[in-house]
Task: inverse folding
């Protein structure tokens, strides 16, 4: 899990710090699509690994396949031309990720209700994603209908959501590491019982 | 979108701002609701668990106390009754007996035999109080009928029982538990109810085994039963509850009316 989060962080650091500045206008549409696709893939993978039920996993699979199909159709359709941002795929991505988070919480509370949810690292990941996506949902949706100046002025707000998400992801990693350490210590407390 | 475009960019900015704010408020509210609701439910569950543990402790204490009382009674019976009887028999059969004349010897042997017979009867009674032989050999129906006949035989009140469907005997340990519960209930009726009759009815419906003990004296209602089992008093009732806990699938009928146990 930590590897996926680290990979996610590294990928988007490279994308935002380097590639974002190098992309020319003619590849903007492809870049936006790939960005949305990569982000959706990471969020799906992180949440998919944290659900156990077959039903939830099936929904994840179907939704992910539907999203890929939609993106292919969207990119090859002459009717959808994204000038600033791929607003429709981002909107759909947000809705699908919210469905994932709903499924995650549904499954968590169905199976575990005796342990506080905030002691579980994935809770912090889920709320990080929720805050990040709900904070930028309207901006991405209306990005093509507002002027560049307005977009730039509102764009700063997405950094707040993104920063909160990154902090909450860091909290999740700390909680995950702590629980692993606790597990290791409790395993060490068991004496040798003639076999391992 | 057309409406937004028509009304100018400032409106779009407002929609954007309020929409984002609304989404964030909704998300944060949802997160807070999840956290606080779960805390509330966990606290409630913990309280329930504590209460259950307390109840279990009470039942365990009652069970231990009852076991100790039973052991004390056994020790007293053996020490006060069987001990002196055997000591007396030993006195009759001392070494000097061989020096006595034949009549005295015969008299001593006869007395000793009489005492040993009494001791055998006493040991048998103690053994029967631990595990009634009728229950072991002939089952719950016979043991209950036997118990009720003995009560009727005392002449203080009329006791009767009727088993409607008891072709297949329950497991011996279950029969013993049910018999002990009946004994305890009957004992309570004899001690507290001042009734003139007791009637026990048995029947089976589906996979449930029903027993109804009916009398015309002062009775218990479900609320009294629950209250007494939770209080420090009511050792017998706690013992019934702990025995009922062992019997999975068998439970008291909740509908109690006065005079029905």
Result:
């Amino acid at each position: 899990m930590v590897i996926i989060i680290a990979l996610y962080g590294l990928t988007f650091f490279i994308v935002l710090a380097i590639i974002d500045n190098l992309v020319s206008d003619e590849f903007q549409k492809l870049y936006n699509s790939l960005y949305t696709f990569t982000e959706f893939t990471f969020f799906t993978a992180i949440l998919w690994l944290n659900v156990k039920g077959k039903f939830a996993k099936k929904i994840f699979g179907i939704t992910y396949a539907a999203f890929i199909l939609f993106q292919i159709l969207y990119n090859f359709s002459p009717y959808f031309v994204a000038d600033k941002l791929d607003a429709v795929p981002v909107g759909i991505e947000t809705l699908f990720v919210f469905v994932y988070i709903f499924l995650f919480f549904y499954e968590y509370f169905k199976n575990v209700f005796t342990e506080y949810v905030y002691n579980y690292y994935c809770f912090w990941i889920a709320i990080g994603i929720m805050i990040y996506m709900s904070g930028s949902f309207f901006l991405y949706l209306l990005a093509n209908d507002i002027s560049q100046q307005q977009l730039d002025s509102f764009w700063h707000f997405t950094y707040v959501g993104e920063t909160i998400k990154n902090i909450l992801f860091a909290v999740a990693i700390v909680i995950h590491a702590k629980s692993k350490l606790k597990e290791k210590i409790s395993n060490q407390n068991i004496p040798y019982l003639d076999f391992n | 979108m057309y409406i937004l475009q028509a009304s100018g960019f400032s409106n779009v900015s407002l929609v954007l701002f309020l929409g984002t704010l609304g989404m964030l408020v909704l998300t944060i509210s949802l997160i807070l609701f999840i956290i606080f609701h779960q805390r509330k439910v966990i606290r409630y569950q913990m309280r329930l668990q504590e209460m259950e543990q307390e109840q279990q402790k009470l039942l365990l204490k009652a069970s231990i106390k009852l076991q100790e009382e039973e052991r004390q009674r056994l020790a007293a019976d053996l020490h006060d009754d069987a001990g002196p009887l055997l000591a007396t028999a030993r006195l009759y059969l001392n070494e000097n007996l061989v020096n006595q004349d034949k009549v005295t010897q015969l008299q001593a042997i006869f007395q000793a035999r009489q005492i040993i017979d009494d001791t055998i009867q006493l040991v048998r009674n103690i053994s029967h109080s631990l595990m009634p032989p009728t229950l072991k050999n002939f089952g719950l129906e016979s043991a209950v009928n036997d118990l009720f006949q003995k009560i009727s035989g005392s002449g203080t009140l009329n006791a009767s029982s009727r088993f409607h469907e008891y072709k297949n005997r329950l497991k011996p340990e279950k029969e013993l538990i049910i018999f002990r519960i009946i004994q305890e209930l009957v004992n309570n009726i004899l001690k507290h109810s001042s009734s003139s009759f007791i009637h026990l009815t048995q029947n089976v419906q589906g996979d449930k085994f029903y027993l109804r003990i009916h009398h015309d004296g002062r009775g218990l209602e479900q609320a009294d039963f629950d209250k007494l089992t939770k209080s420090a008093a009511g050792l017998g009732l706690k013992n019934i509850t702990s025995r009922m806990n062992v019997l999975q699938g068998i439970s008291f009928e909740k509908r109690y009316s006065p005079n029905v146990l």
